[in-house]
What we know:
- The chain is 35% helix and 19% strand.
- The radius of gyration is 16 Å and the shape is globular.
- Strand 6, helix 4 and strand 7 (131-135) form a beta-alpha-beta unit.
- By secondary structure, the protein is an alpha/beta fold.
- The protein has a single domain (2-214), classed as Rossmann fold, CATH 3.40.50.
- It has 7 helices and 9 strands; from the N terminus they run ββαβββααβαβαβαβα.
- It comes from Aeromonas lusitana.
Amino acid sequence: MIDLHPDGARHAVIWLHGLGDSGAGLAPLVDALDLPTSLPVRHLLPDAPERPITINMGHKMRGWYDIRSFEQPEDRAVESHVRESAASIQGLLERLIAEGFAPERIVLAGFSQGGVIASFTALRCPQTLAGLLCMSTYLAAPDALLGEMSEAARSLPICYMHGIYDDVVALSMGWEAKNRLEAAGLALEWHEYPMRHEICRPQLADIRAWLLARLGA
């Protein structure tokens, strides 16, 4: 795990990478945001475990969960793996809190698979977090959301971002997540970009502005 911990940091962002990537692979995003030095923020970028991924012919790679197919919601994310990974990230949250970081100063963020785990964790987290940022992603176990969502999640600032031309996680899957969250009574900010399964420059400016608003700058 990469842990960027500047002196005086009172805020933290946990960044969760996509399938086959790593914390190091997502680290350039943190640099590109160019957050002000007057607001020192701790950035944690954990690595998913290596596991066989069915849609990649069973080859082993870093993945927060297995994907059997994108045809049915239950196949998009093996639920037992999702829950294991979410428990691991909740443990990382608890560690940050034990170190003195207030929950309301911690943001959970993720791209693709990482966004799935970020949302699954944040929506069930008993503490009120600073925000949830999900990029090019979808919901795991959507039918369980209403029964498992925490009371703290009802006031959670949420932002979803998706590429119109995403050929890995279709835009419709992002809209499905948006509709599920709104049906659960949650409000969220939504952004679309003329891009594929990636992060584009205009999106960086929006991420930066959203983070600064959440972290009180």
